[in-house]
Write a structure and sequence with these properties.
The structure holds two protein chains of two kinds. Helix content of chain A is 38%, strand content 13%. Chain A is built from 25 helices and 19 strands. Chain B is built from two helices and five strands, in the order ββαββαβ. Chain B has helices spanning 34-40, 62-66, and strands at 2-7, 23-27, 50-53, 56-57, 74-78. Chain B is globular. Classes of the chains: A alpha+beta, B alpha+beta. Chain A binds chain B through residues 231-233, 236-238, 240-246, 248-249, 252-254, 270, 274-276, 279, 329-331, 465-466, 469, 471-472, 475-478, 481, 484, 511-512, 515, 578-580, and chain B through 6, 8-10, 12, 21-22, 46, 49-50, 52, 54-57, 59, 76, 78-84.
């Protein structure tokens, strides 16, 4: 059965922690993690609620395979209504926290209400209590982690916490676990802060011994691990170069947006790439990349642990930042780098450290600074707003200074914390927000790569590559190569990626396995672990059901087909040069067909017939 | 004729000596095909996973066998990689 079948419900208004059985009827329909927690949210929360009001709920959730011997089984998610978007939010993170939560005996924790003072949840196996966190309020995520560990004298305790930016009202604050893994997108950390919940500290010693068929599970997971090891991407490419290897690939094909997506192609890309991270530097002979790193149970190990050059201006007088910590991964490197025009690898690594330390989504943060830079260059924002900082594209010193100011809640922090949609509206330039449903794009330009544009436009949590990573097919040839600029077949491709991803995100496994695994590798692992029918066909149907359920939540929250759109810049401003010169995204050619293959109406609604087919 | 070659990630080891991180200007026979160029640098078919000429993909097999390079072309090659 693999689920622990236990849900911890924490009423922050009353200060109570109670256990209740997992709804197994829902588990059979939605599996776990993203799917199952979204079902709970849909049933328990009014989609029209204020995301930062006490009526919103915040769910930390594992999947049935989290914490098991399956490869990459360290995943958990934070599910809530997102304050950045007003849409359903589900942010997935690795590290060790998720497996610890499962080992403590819980499938999920549902936080509801609002505490009248800062608290943290202390969870030691089946013992749950809310502790005063007044002394932690105002501390960074790193300080909070250290203080809680010191308080409880338990080095194996795993901690998920918010930093100062969440407390300051930044709408895209992340939940940071294990100091440098993040449930990053959509402002899930801001919801924690709105409830006066500073952290969750977990120690679990119960083990996970309840898989449905232990022998079959061992066989299926071992088979899966062999596939990952033998595959050139998951066995060699990702551990050696990490996701950052894409910087030169995407730039090379003409798909790398730069300077708030004003340009495509970044002349500084090679200086902030995986190849650059591996080069020894002049000052101490060490490369930026110290080592790769793995999350719980992972046999890929794509994570980056880096150091900043100790002589670099950003850290030379700050020894606390000269040690190794979570390094740049591709999406962060793009948003903090190419999108701001900054090609200083050390500056970006330092800013990435600050994103981890103070808990903000580096994609939205970088893209928001990029929008501010464009408005600064156009004269809408001046040094009077920024506290004297010349916020121009490519200015590494300014970027470091504004980030330090932001983390400390200083001048201009409140504006940057709005995200680019609200920021550009405030300064009268809404057309400069590169967002869908209020959330910023990641590192692939929809003008150069058609399918990813359709995925962004239809993503249930706003612009996001991790809702349907068609880049795998359109650029990397996984599982088959499709043409970048074709729109034919892309609606079907987007749907297939979105549904499969929803299933993987509901299982406890990492989406990166799908560079090597198909559903025929994943389904047997779920089937061996869980009771019920987990055939390939049923898994795909569960994924489709989850996608449609999320859409229904958004529909009830007030979203319509009019929100399935891309910024005008990407539809009308053609790429100026490079291999994709002259292209725009042709969303209008793809969207009607996408609705059709999803079984939706021409105006993007889910009809009764489709709901019935999916048991919704 | 002269062309530019760019070998990335684990393929950097196949680059001839030079200063740039992953780019070299090299002299090749006039009209050399893409496949011959890849063989000339001892890069296997499996390793040459993503191949671009001037930023445009050239598929494995016949496309690379028949693709003749021209003066000033830039050939970029990656092994199987991914990210996201």
């Amino acid at each position: 059965m693999s689920w622990t079948r236990n849900v911890l419900r924490v009423d922050l208004s009353k200060g109570s922690c109670t256990s209740e059985p997992l709804n197994m009827e829902w588990a059979k329909l939605y599996l776990g993690q993203r799917g199952l927690a979204s079902k709970y949210l849909s049933e328990e929360v009014d989609p029209k609620c204020d995301p930062l009001g006490p009526e919103n709920k915040f769910i930390m959730t594992t999947g049935p395979l989290t914490g098991t011997m399956a490869s990459t089984s360290g995943r958990y998610s934070c599910v809530t209504k997102g304050p950045l978007t007003g849409a359903i939010a589900c942010s997935n993170s690795g590290g060790y926290f998720g497996a610890e939560l499962k080992n403590a005996g819980w499938d999920m924790i549902i936080f509801e209400g609002k505490s009248d003072k800062p608290v943290y949840l202390l969870l030691q196996d089946d013992k749950a209590e809310l502790r005063d966190a007044t002394h932690l309020w105002g501390k960074t995520a790193w300080e909070t982690d250290d203080i809680i560990h010191a308080t409880h004298q338990e080095p194996q305790m795993r901690i998920a916490t918010i930093g100062r930016t969440a407390e300051n009202g930044c709408l895209y604050a992340a939940v940071i676990n294990d100091k440098h893994r993040a449930a990053g997108r959509s402002g899930v950390g801001t919801v924690m802060a709105s409830k006066n919940l500073k952290a969750v500290a977990v120690r679990g010693t119960q083990g996970i011994g309840n898989v449905e068929d232990a022998n079959a599970f061992m066989q299926a997971t071992n088979d899966g691990k062999a596939v990952l090891a033998e595959n050139a991407v998951t066995g060699q490419g990702l551990p050696a170069f990490g996701t950052q290897v894409l910087m030169n690939v995407i730039n090379g094909i003409g798909g790398l947006p730069a300077r708030n997506m004003r340009d495509v192609g970044f002349e500084g890309a090679e200086h902030i790439s995986a190849e650059a991270m591996a080069e020894p530097r002049a000052s101490d002979g060490k490369p930026n990349l110290t080592t790769n790193a793995a999350c719980f149970g992972c046999t890929i190990a794509c994570g980056r642990i880096s150091t900043v050059d100790p002589t670099h201006f950003s850290v030379k007088d700050k020894p606390q930042y000269q040690g190794a910590s979570g390094g740049l991964e591709y999406e962060a490197a793009w948003a903090l780098g190419a999108d701001t025009g900054v090609d200083d690898l050390d500056a970006l690594t330092y800013v990435n450290f600050l994103c981890n330390e103070d808990g903000m989504d580096p994609i939205t943060y970088g893209a928001t600074v990029a929008a501010a830079m464009e408005m600064f260059e156009d004269g809408n924002i001046t040094t009077e707003h920024t506290g004297g900082i010349e916020l121009t594209f490519g200015n590494a010193e300014a970027f470091v200074a504004i980030t330090e100011q932001f983390c400390q809640g200083g001048t201009f922090a409140e504006d940057l914390g709005l995200g680019s949609k609200r920021l550009t509206e405030k300064y009268g330039r809404p057309e400069l927000s590169m967002t869908v449903k209020g959330q910023e794009f990641p590192a692939y330009d929809p003008r150069g790569i058609q399918g990813i544009g359709l995925n962004y436009a239809t993503s249930n949590r706003g612009a996001c590559h991790l809702r349907g990573y068609t880049i795998a097919s359109e650029v990397l040839g996984i599982p088959v190569k499709t043409e970048l600029n074709d729109t034919d077949g892309k609606p079907e491709l987007v749907k297939a990626f979105q549904d499969a991803t929803a299933l993987v995100d509901s299982s406890g496994l990492c989406i990166f396995t799908t560079f090597a695994w198909g559903m025929d590798n994943i389904a047997p692992q779920i089937d061996a672990a869980c009771e019920g029918d987990w055939s390939v066909e049923n898994c795909l149907e569960v994924g489709e059901r989850v996608w449609n359920m999320e859409r229904l939540f958004n529909e009830a929250a007030g979203f319509t087909a009019d929100d399935d759109k891309l910024p005008k810049r990407l539809l009308e401003e053609a790429i100026k040069d490079g291999p994709t010169k002259g292209q725009v995204n042709r969303l209008g050619e793809m969207l009607p067909k996408y609705y059709e293959v999803r079984g939706w109406t021409a105006d993007g609604k889910i009809p009764e017939e489709t709901r019935k087919r999916l048991s919704l | 004729m002269n062309i530019n070659i760019e070998f990335y990630a684990s393929l950097m080891k196949y680059l001839p000596p030079g200063k740039s991180r992953f780019r070299r200007e090299v002299k090749v026979d006039d009209g050399i095909t893409l496949s011959k160029l890849i063989q000339q640098y001892h890069i296997s078919e499996q390793e040459a996973h993503l191949v671009l000429v001037n930023g445009h993909f050239v598929n494995c097999g016949e496309d690379r066998d028949s693709r003749e390079l021209a003066e000033g072309d830039t050939v970029s090659i990656w092994p199987p990689v991914a990210g996201g």
